[in-house]
Design brief:
Blueprint: H1 22-49, E1 82-88, E2 91-95, E3 101-106, E4 110-115, E5 124-132, E6 139-140, E7 145-147, E8 155-156, E9 161-162, E10 170-178, E11 185-189, E12 199-203, E13 209-212, E14 221-225, E15 232-238, E16 248-253, E17 257-263, E18 267-269, E19 274-275, E20 279-286, E21 291-296
Parallel strand pairs: 1-3, 2-4, 3-5, 4-6, 7-11, 12-14, 13-15, 14-16, 15-17, 18-21
Antiparallel strand pairs: 5-10, 6-9, 8-9, 10-11, 16-20, 17-19, 20-21
Length: 297
């Protein structure tokens, strides 16, 4: 609320045709001066905080909202800033404060980093337009990019990197999202199909193995491995508790398994106690019967 008070000025003073006390003049002049001071202060405050279409006279345009909330707004014809990081042969940092869209052209394997994601509890995102100029180049992700990587084509877990030997050179788009100030980042491939790793790999040991697929509702392949250290025995496999109708589950092993125990919340028809090395068993769930049926040997 403004401090300017037009009511403290006596507009009926001085009175014409009479000898007026000078105190009335002094009171009016003082109140007018005070109101001018209030107006100056409030205008300066407004000019320093208001959002304007162009720079005010003698100032530089700066509409930085400083992270304040803008709510219940209807927007039209908005656009986002794109930042060109140039041609990169080693390292590049995508700075969230420079824009939500970044461009990078590779001139070698590029190691990616991020900076200035917004504070935890708010969501920041960066879209990357990557121009890959050679199939020998890779995009190395920081360790914070830990969600969504298993769906990436030509992904190498050992150094958290993406390759392009299969898909070739060209433009690739990725989106990176974080809601904890960049501590954990999810990656979304926008221009390449996502792969679907519908398998569960389990490195098991002899005599003490229990493989639980209870909560894996969409798995279709279970792979047992003991590093070719010899035959396995007493391996227990628990099937998914809530399978889908027609769901197929294949169990394979690189070595023979004796005493293979298959358990499930539903009946398993065609249960077996052995599995030859480099072979597999296949089961299909029939919802109307409430059973798993062995459909491959």
């Amino acid at each position: 609320m403004s401090n300017i008070n037009p009511n403290n000025i006596n507009s009926a003073y001085p009175v014409a045709g009479v000898d007026n006390d000078s105190q009335g003049f002094r009171d009016n002049f003082t109140n007018i001066k005070n109101n001018f001071a209030y107006a100056q202060s409030e205008l300066n405050d407004l000019q320093s905080k208001a959002i304007v279409k162009s720079a005010l006279t003698g100032t530089t345009l700066n509409n930085n909202m400083g992270g304040t909330l803008l709510s219940s707004a209807q927007i039209q014809d908005f656009r986002e800033t794109e930042y060109d990081n140039g041609i990169i042969s080693t390292n590049v940092t995508l700075d969230h404060s420079r824009g939500h869209y970044h461009k990078v052209q590779t001139n070698g394997t590029v190691t990616l980093a991020f900076s200035n994601f917004p504070a935890a509890g708010t969501v920041g995102r960066i879209r990357l337009k990557l121009n890959v100029t050679s199939t020998s180049h890779r995009l190395i992700l920081p360790s914070a990019v830990s969600i969504g990587t298993k769906y990436l084509q030509d992904y190498l877990q050992t150094n958290n990197s993406i390759g392009y030997t299969q898909s070739g050179t060209g433009i690739y788009w990725y989106e990176f999202v974080s809601d904890d100030a960049g501590a954990t980042i999810t990656i979304f491939p926008l221009s390449r199909p996502r792969v679907n790793p519908d398998y569960l790999y389990s490195n098991v040991s002899n005599g003490t193995s229990a493989v639980n697929t209870t909560n894996v509702s969409v798995i279709s392949k279970l792979i047992l491995d003991n590093g070719a250290a010899g035959a396995l025995a007493n391996v227990k496999v628990t099937f998914p508790s809530y399978p889908m109708d027609g769901q197929f589950l294949s169990i394979s092993s690189n070595v023979s398994v004796t005493n293979l125990f298959l358990t499930a919340g539903n009946t398993i028809n065609g249960n077996t106690t052995t599995l030859s090395g480099n072979s597999h068993l296949g089961y299909t769930f029939v919802n109307s019967a409430g059973k798993w049926f062995r459909t491959q040997l």
